[in-house]
Amino acid sequence: MIYKRSSALFAEAKQYIPGGVNSPVRAFKAVGGDPIFVKKAKGAYLYDEDGNKLIDYIASWGPLILGHAYEPVINAIVEKAQKGTSFGMPTEIETDLAKLAVEMVPNIERIRFVNSGTEACMSAVRLARGYTGKDKIIKFSGCYHGHSDSFLIQAGSGAVTFGSPNSPGVTQGTAKDTLLAAYNNLDEVQNLVSANKGEIAAIILEPIAGNMGCIVPTDSFIKGLRELCDHEGILLVFDEVMTGFRLGKGGAQEVLGVKADIVTFGKVIGGGLPVGAFAANADIMGHLAPDGPVYQAGTLSGNPLAMSAGLAMLTELNTNPNIFKSLEEKTAYLHKGIATALESKGVTHQINRYGSMISVHFTDEPVVDFASSAKGNNDTFKKYFHGMLEQGVYLPPSAFESYFLNDALSYQDLDDTIAAVEKIAL
Ligand code: KE4
Q1: Collapsing DSSP states into helix, strand and coil, what is residue 164?
Q2: Which long-range contacts (CB under 8 A, 24 or more apart) does 89-93 make?
Q3: For a pocket test of ligand 1, which of 26, 118, 357 has the largest count of ligand atoms closer than 8 A to its C-beta?
Q4: pLDDT score, position 163
Q5: Distance (Å, rounded) from C-alpha 357 to C-alpha 372?
Q6: What is the pTM of this model?
Q7: Which ligand 1 atom is nearest residue 117's CA?
Q8: Domain span at 81
Q9: With a 6 A CB cut-off, is 117 part of the ligand 1 pocket?
Q10: For residues 165 and 171, is the Cβ–Cβ distance under 8 A?
Q11: Is 48 marked active-site?
Q12: 206 CB within 6 A, ligand 1
């Protein structure tokens, strides 16, 4: 594969945009080499600036669950754009999408639209703090909830881990209110709750994690969190930016059978345009401005152009829920094929999968949290990533990401992907 034009475009981009990208993971820092510049995409395929056709397994990091340039979504956007793109005034289509989301997702009565997953998670934590009157939150190492200061925190030193900033610009004052625990470790959460009695507003997590690769919670962990929150008056926040409308109509709450107090969304809910959202019952959401004192706002929140894409996408998923089963079957097929190919090459690996989320880890230990995910051999991952790219398969350029399958992928695409694994030297 030739990537000359992508490299030239990257060199030019770096003269005007920090790192040449508008989101760091796109820069290929974790895998080396220059990023691929895409020219267009359709269905399961990306067409880059050098004319290469690539089978796409990131689907814009999740949103394009039906494939790129999906006709009903494009038609909805084009039609709506001709009537204006944003007014800063209420429009009917915001209610249409809100009604559909409330109908599809269990245990929510009100939903507020924002413009990104970060905004959704940041607002959900502010709402939890405002509703409970408490300051602290618990998050899990390796879970990503966007780049709001309260989330850019790593485990601090000391037994009861007060957070410490993991990015310059995040203050110690912010970090002290974020506590860290290991995913799938209920004991650590209980210790934090006991050591901060009555001070914790919320526990926030990815109910199926996708930012350490894909990690599935144990039943005892996720149900234990729910019981702990009920007992301690803590709000349980499911960050469903990845899992919402991907794992099923009702997302992780539905497939795991665990209720969250606040749920955040992004990616699929916007159909490929910038939409995030957070939702809860009427009592909790009633604390949000303008009804209540918790402030949150946004110029382009609920803009009709983005709403039209989200409504077209969710309507499709709501009327054809077999898409979720078809995606799950395709992901299971891919899982089996990759596992067989790597086993035949004698390559030590773990594959984690839930629904249409899957990740490959080059380690002999089960990957159940960030620490075990970080033990993956990144040199092998780099060879795997570039070996697949050379054969026209575009995977997430980081070992700490999940693949996002789209329903436009054919079984031939999956077979071609498996054949590519068989060919690469690891
Ligand atoms: P955004 O602000 O990027 O729309 O959403 C933040 C976010 C929140 N919660 C979860 C579970 C997420 O996965 C994300 C964003 N996901 C990353 C992919 N791991 C987006 C890719 C990127 O940062 O460019």
Answers
A1: strand
A2: 90/302, 91/302, 91/304, 91/307, 93/304, 93/307, 93/308, 93/311
A3: 118
A4: 72
A5: 18
A6: 0.97
A7: 5
A8: 71-319
A9: yes
A10: yes
A11: no
A12: yes
Buried b (16+ CB within 10 A) or exposed e, 318-345: eeeeebbeebbebbeebeebbbebbeee
- Which 3 state secondary structure label does DSSP give 143? coil
Beta-strand ranges (E) seen in 75-198 are: 110-114, 136-140, 153-155, 163-165, 178-181
Cβ contact 137:204 at 8 Å: yes
Does the residue 300 lie in any domain? Answer: yes
Number of structural domains the chain divides into: 1
Q: Is 264 helix (H, G, I), strand (E, B) or coil?
A: strand
Q: Look at residue 400 and give its three-state secondary structure.
A: coil
Task: Say if 128 falls within a structural domain.
Answer: yes
254 Cβ contact list (under 8 Å, min separation 6):
105, 106, 247, 248
Q: In Å, what is the CA distance from 307 to each residue of 98, 115, 241, 243?
A: 9, 11, 16, 19
Mean pLDDT by 10 residues, the chain (426 residues): 92 98 95 97 98 97 98 98 97 98 98 98 98 97 95 68 81 94 97 96 98 97 98 98 98 98 98 98 98 98 98 98 97 98 97 97 97 96 97 96 97 98 95
- C-alpha to C-alpha distance for 21 and 26, rounded to whole angstroms: 7
For residue 205, give both structure tokens: 């997590």
Residue 353, domain member (yes or no)? no
pLDDT value at position 69?
98
Residue 296, domain CATH: 3.40.640.10
Residue 38 counted as domain residue: no
Catalytic residue check, 267: yes
